[in-house]
Design goal:
alpha/beta, Nucleotidyltransferase, domain 5, 2 domains, eight-stranded mixed beta sheet, 14 strands, globular, binds adenosine monophosphate
């Protein structure tokens, strides 16, 4: 392997039609460059590159596939003297959505690892193929740079069997690897640790409920730094109400729609994943729009209010459930687009939970801020906090620790 004296880590997040990238300098926490390629495979793909301290470069041009997208971003980095052959680049960290049961830690990528990620495609048909395309191209563009896979599922592999199992026939479940895996693990790991740090406590001695509320949303119960339950399951469809996903639903709804409405499995899949959640309930999947409509006197305020209420009710049920799972809760941490920015959602979720030792101070909750901060009244039994997530930093940190053998001073 090449030298390990450099301090730059390139993080690649390859989705089905996009690649997001960020170059981080682990020595000083700076971010020399980042950007994205969107609408891969369409005629009007979009490229954006943001070098630190320089003007943004963006263009629209056809980008046929992930390989072409990665070549384009490598060229952009090269123009800033940050190419994939730069001696500063110590590793590339890839976000990989599904690591099954096998990958419990960040893992240096070799042929066996790539083959195992491929073997998991049936349980993550939308995500793992795109992640693999990114990995294969990066390996061919930078064969000498160590590459690390950081799995969305890894943090949840500590869930006890009784939380990970569905109550279905064990033989069927085992043959088809049907169990609860959980997702957003990189964020849950980062935020649960951040919440403990905010309280000045060791993560290993802190119990946290993490509410990751973005376009996708999930909750997790973290006991002493280890995940003991999470709301997403075999796929990222289970659990909370999301922008376009239903979250928990009686599985018999699927049979009903098939038998009574004559819908195909693919149509029901599309309904539950893309046309449900906030969008299905009120026609908008963006919480900003839902909040704006609720405050208006317009005719569409009512459906927005209902969508908000369903969203909040589901969240409160998970908070209550995870109180029971954890026994003792030290902190509830809100994160991601909605969790970090939507004060009315945080207020509504926590309303009436004083019996559980939880409350939100309206002034602290409404105050602007972009760092980790407490929003519960001083002296509360359970701290309620906003802890901004940073999945890129967490992937870079885990990657860097693995290739440099350090712990970056983490507890
Ligand atoms: P994420 O997936 O973490 O980027 O979160 C995206 C979601 O965050 C968007 O769909 C919005 O619904 C939500 N969001 C972002 N900013 C705000 C805000 N200021 N108020 C309410 N919701 C917001």
């Amino acid at each position: 392997m090449r030298n390990t004296r450099g301090t730059h880590v390139l993080v690649l997040n390859t989705g089905s039609s996009s690649v997001k990238y960020r170059l981080l300098d682990m020595a000083d926490g700076s971010r020399p460059a980042g950007g994205l390629v969107e609408r891969i495979g369409e005629r009007t793909s979009y490229l954006r590159h943001d070098p630190a301290g320089g003007p943004r470069r963006e263009r629209e041009e056809p980008v046929a596939d992930h390989a072409t997208a990665l070549e384009a971003l490598a060229e952009e980095l090269e123009r800033d003297g940050l190419g994939l052959d730069s001696p500063e680049l110590v590793a590339i960290g890839h976000r990989v959505v599904h690591g099954g049961r096998r990958f419990t830690e960040p893992t240096v990528i070799d042929e066996a690892v790539t083959a195992e990620i491929e073997r998991l495609v049936p349980v993550a048909p939308l995500h793992n193929p795109a992640n693999l395309a990114g990995i294969r191209t990066a390996l061919s563009l930078a064969p000498d740079v160590p590459q690390v896979a950081v799995f969305d599922t890894a943090f949840h592999t500590t869930m006890p069997e009784h939380a990970a199992r569905y109550a279905i026939d064990t033989a069927v479940a085992d043959e088809h690897r049907v169990r609860r895996y959980g997702f957003h693990g990189t964020s849950h790991a980062y935020v649960s640790r951040g919440a403990a740090e905010l309280l000045g406590r060791e993560p290993s001695e802190t119990n946290v409920i993490v509410l990751h509320l973005g376009n996708g949303a999930s909750a997790s119960a973290v006991a002493g730094g280890r995940c003991v339950d999470t709301s997403m399951g075999l796929t990222p469809l289970e659990g909370l109400v999301m922008g376009t996903r239903s979250g928990d639903i009686d599985p018999a709804v699927v049979f009903h729609l098939s038998r009574v409405a004559g819908m195909s499995v693919d149509e029901i899949d599309e309904l539950l994943n893309r046309r449900s959640g906030l969008l299905g309930l009120c026609g908008d999947n963006d919480m900003r729009e839902v909040l704006r409509r609720m405050d208006s006197d317009g005719p569409d305020a009512e459906s927005a209010r209902l969508a908000f209420d369903v969203y909040v009710h589901r969240l409160r049920k998970y908070v209550g459930a995870y109180c029971a799972v954890l026994g003792r809760v030290d902190a509830v941490a809100f994160t991601a687009g909605i969790g970090e920015n939507a004060a009315p959602v945080r207020q509504a979720v926590m309303a009436g939970l004083r019996g559980l030792g939880m409350a939100v101070d309206p002034e602290l909750n409404g105050a602007p801020g972009d760092g980790p901060r407490l929003i519960s009244p001083p002296g509360s039994r359970v701290a309620v906090a906003v802890v901004p997530t940073d999945e890129e930093l967490e992937i870079a940190t885990q990657t860097y620790e693995l290739v440099s053998g350090g712990t970056m001073g983490r507890k």
